[in-house]
Amino acid sequence: MAEAKYISNDKLTAWLDELAGKMRVIAPTRQGDAVVFAPYASGQSVELTQEATSPPKSVVFPASEDLLRYDYRKNPENLGQVDVELLPTITPEPTLVFGSRPCGVRGFLIFDRVYDGAIYKDPYYLARREATLFATITCGHAENACFCHSVGSGPGDATGSDLLLTPIGDGFVVESVSDKGSQCLESSLLEAAGGKADEAKAFREKAHQEMGEPQDFGPAQKKLLELFDDMGFWEDVSAKCISCGACTYLCPTCYCFNITDENAGLTGRRVRSWDNCMSFQFTLEASGHNPRPTKAHRLKNRVGHKFSYYPDLHEGIIACCGCGRCIKSCPVSVDIREIVTKAMAHQPPAVEEAAK
Amino acid sequence: MTENPKQSPLAANPYLPEIGTVVETIQETHNIKTFRVVLGSEERMQNFHYEPGQVGQLSVFGIGESTFVINSPPTRKEYLQFSVMRAGEVTTKLHSLSKGDRIGVRAPLGNAFPYESMKGKDIIFIGGGIGMAPLRTLLLFMLDNRKDYGKIRLLYGARSPQDMAFSYELPDWLERKDMETVLTIDREAEGWEHKVGLIPNVLLDMAPKPRKAVAVTCGPPIMIKFTLQALKKLGFKDNQIITTLEKRMKCGVGICGRCNIGTKYVCVDGPVFSYEQLRELPNEL
Fold first, then answer.
1. ipTM of the complex model
2. Is B256 in Cβ contact with A120 (below 8 Å)?
3. Of residues B64, B104, B253, nearest to A260 (C-beta)
4. How many CB atoms lie within 10 A of CB B262?
């Protein structure tokens, strides 16, 4: 990391106010029992001590956004002739996401490989991604659903961030990870970190060690495909799922979407919205045929996509950031770690028979 | 099958349709309507590059988009032809369009038939119902490049004579000396002078030879299933059978995550697959 500074807690609000004068700042805010990323208003308190209930996904990939506006216009010379004009709506706003965790940023690294593809690029996503900075906070301790260290990340992982903040003493060591991050350090409120930079490094190493041995999900890539036709297995692991989709909406790496039109007379919008592979409609064809007719088929795709198909297409990278939100927020306690572990340990019945 | 073409004009913003104009509509059957569409200018039409088998998304703004094969071959570029079976909201709205109406077009998308590697081979086309649409593109393309291909045979079946699309072309196809056309319907009908019987059975009667041949088939899933069995019985190998898949597609560019079968996305890796490729995919059609 290029540069290390220190900010004491009593100056944090003033620094945020300074930053908010230059760009939109989004920070974790307590809303009832939940902590959500919301626009920062001057002097407002931010919640930096616990992982946010929902990730900062919507800052770069809004839950709903216009792809274009259309406008039907009657030709005044020929009223039977109606023309249509299209107006693409790409309007990125310079934004700082302050106080996300490494897992929240890792989600966008998973997105990037899909939305910034070799042939097709998603200009809406990329414009917003380019305009967004991340000031990420190192996690001091893992919550019980956390497993970021098992999917290639860790509590102090700075990959994808522009700044990394590590809580030391009564403040944070602030380290720049990118050039854009360095610019945020140009403030008289920040002081030299001195020896605290080493403390921050030790803090991150300790946090990583305290997570214990990572689990090796690598074998899942092949194993999930082997289990593809074993619907007994998938019916078993999906039995309690109620197809609510909370897991996908709260997931920093889930990127699927729908496109729908919203009409208002002769004008309207083409809207992109988050979609959810746990819903029956996701793959329902106009003919009535549905290649994923049951929740067992759909959960198989969700787990398969994250731990098998995506890694197969993207150099073994697992499309899960280990944040555990899908586990913590599942109303019926479906645990994706358990499903993948169970799949990796699963022996086909015939093999079990032979072993007896 | 073939490499995804890289010259797509959709590269800048793959979600932004071009505005096209419907220049002609043809009521093919009670539920299939064909649209001939031109894009922006004559120059644009001449510069519009695609390959047989590629698809496009048609938009009716305010209702939405759906995917259809471009069933006119790139050797005939005065318009782009799409045949639409009425099945849902978008297709119902499309059916209400007439000459002069504007339409959104995102094309070309997806891969194409491997027409290069089919050169010098005998071709048997087996189409059922609306499944004739993608075959039409390749058939016309091959007829326009006739010397490149061996014997060309077409087996086209529909439920009844009234369900046969492209009826205006059938007399020409039947009369042509450089191809053999066999039409069949499911049940006897008054005035019908062609075959009666299900496609797989008629195919077995036709008994195309698998040597140096490729079978291209498209139709309802149940037809495909039994047609594959018939082709296997005739000795066709998995890599000699080509088909196209349908899925519920949205973005059409491999991003929205809807049309995958394992690691393959039908909108970019397909819609054209050989049966050999399909067998390697997870069983999720």
1. 0.92
2. no
3. B64
4. 20
- Which residues from B are below 8 Å from A278, CB to CB? none
Portion 108-167 of B in contact with A at CB < 8 A: none
Q: Which residues, in sequence order, are bridge partners of residue B216?
A: B125, B242
Would you say B130 and B120 are in contact if contact means Cβ atoms under 8 Å apart? no
d(CA A166, CA A103): 15
5-34 in chain B: CB under 8 A from chain A: 6, 8, 10-17, 19
Residue A6 has pLDDT above 70, yes or no: yes
On the question of pLDDT at B50 being above 60, the answer is: yes
Structure tokens at B200: 């797989």
Is the CB of residue B284 less than 8 Å from the CB of residue A319? no
The mean pLDDT of chain A is 94
pLDDT mean over A297-303: 97
Q: Give A93-107 pLDDT, tens digit per residue.
A: 999 999 999 999 999
β-sheet bridge partners, residue A121: A116
- Does position A353 have pLDDT exceeding 60, yes or no? no
User: How far apart are the C-alpha atoms of A318 and A310, rounded to whole Å?
Assistant: 7
**Contacting residues of B for A122, CB less than 8 Å apart:** 14-15, 255
Q: Which band of pLDDT confidence, cut at 50, 70 and 90, is reported for residue A1? A: low
The pairing of strands A34-39 and A24-31 is: antiparallel
